[in-house]
Design goal:
With about 325 residues, this protein is of the alpha+beta class. Helix content is about 30%, strand content about 35%. The protein contains nine helices and 14 strands. It comes from Branchiostoma belcheri.
Length: about 325
């Protein structure tokens, strides 16, 4: 294949028939430490009008993939992922592909260009964010991975007092009426950052419409019963990855006991619903809860901590104006 500087790339929207070529190219066995969402999400995204998914081709071979998702009822766009064939990986190639894709998207989906772009970057690769104009850093999130056999975890939950102290108030499944307590300014100011919630790491604005959307997508949503303002909120859900079943647990709170209660509820639900080995991806918005949550998962729930901890920067940026004559179609 030609060197990166001379390589001519063309771009088009992905189709269902691209699945095998994309999976062969996208390093799904190593991306997210092998717990990659792409095999489970690909066909769903092809059919989703809110997902923009392009493949890059060179010499009739798929060598790249770009996915963005329109979020918050059309108010924002999430830059979800960019994948590059292993033989072309490198900072220069990623910048080249991102720039050319941006130009293409401006012409194929011009409505997106006025939207604020939201994105995440592993703190180990922050050099990749320097190319984004007017970047505004919002917050960090911490992600930990744990693993356990469902029957063994259930035995731990049933045979010992898992929670060192029962949280007051309790954690319960979300109901639409709970939005009144979540919508109070105190919740956003004291618990969240920039009114942002994360579901399987993806950022969204806290809103009744988004919570309805997540419920429709079968996410498990938990909230405590504090009055007049809630003190915690969490999301859970599952899909298959190249390394087996993953269950994500996304916890938004600042209290140790409440955080542990949310984790316990999600882990218990997952182990009742699925058999065999389950990997739990626990995401926290408060770094102060990381150490206690890790200890809780290992010592109280009987899970094995996997060496895949990550910290991500959540940031936003606005796309600059572009000369309409610059097209890569």
């Amino acid at each position: 294949m030609a060197n990166q500087n001379s390589l001519h790339l063309t771009y088009r929207e992905a189709t269902h028939s691209d699945y095998d070529a994309v999976m062969n190219m996208a390093s799904v066995d190593t991306f997210r430490d092998g717990f990659d969402y792409l095999p489970a999400k690909f066909h769903q995204w092809v059919d989703d009008p809110d997902v923009i998914m392009f493949v890059a081709e060179a010499n009739d071979k798929v060598v790249g993939l770009y996915v963005s998702i329109i979020t918050d009822g059309g108010a924002n766009v999430l830059s979800k992922t960019i994948r590059i064939a292993p033989e072309l990986q490198g900072k220069k190639m990623q910048s080249k592909m991102a720039a050319e894709l941006d130009t293409t998207l401006r012409h194929t989906h011009p409505q997106l260009w006025k939207l604020e772009v939201h994105a995440l970057s592993d703190v180990k690769r922050l050099y990749l964010t320097k190319v984004f104009p007017n970047k505004k850093d919002i917050c960090f999130i911490d992600v930990m991975f744990f693993q356990g056999m469902s029957n063994e975890v259930l035995d731990s939950l049933e045979t010992k007092d898992v929670l060192p102290s029962h949280p007051q108030p309790p954690v319960v499944p979300y109901q639409p009426s709970d939005m009144a307590r979540l919508a109070r300014p105190e919740f956003s100011q004291q618990i969240l950052v920039d009114n942002t919630i994360f579901v399987d790491w993806d950022p969204y604005q806290l809103s009744a419409s988004n919570l309805r959307l997540f419920s429709k997508q079968s996410a498990t949503i938990l909230v405590d019963t504090s009055e007049p303002t809630a003190k915690s909120l969490s999301f859970g859900g599952s899909y298959m990855t190249p390394r087996g079943r993953l269950y994500h647990v996304d916890v938004h709170c600042r209290d140790v006991a409440l955080c542990q209660a949310h984790i316990k509820h999600h882990v218990g639900r997952a182990c009742h619903e699925y058999e065999g080995m389950i990997t739990f991806c626990v995401m926290l918005i408060d770094p102060c809860l990381k150490a206690t949550s890790k200890t809780f998962c290992v010592e109280r729930l009987g899970l094995v901590h996997l060496p895949h901890d990550h910290r991500y920067l959540y940031f936003k940026y606005q796309n600059p104006e572009l000369d309409p004559s610059q097209s890569r179609l």
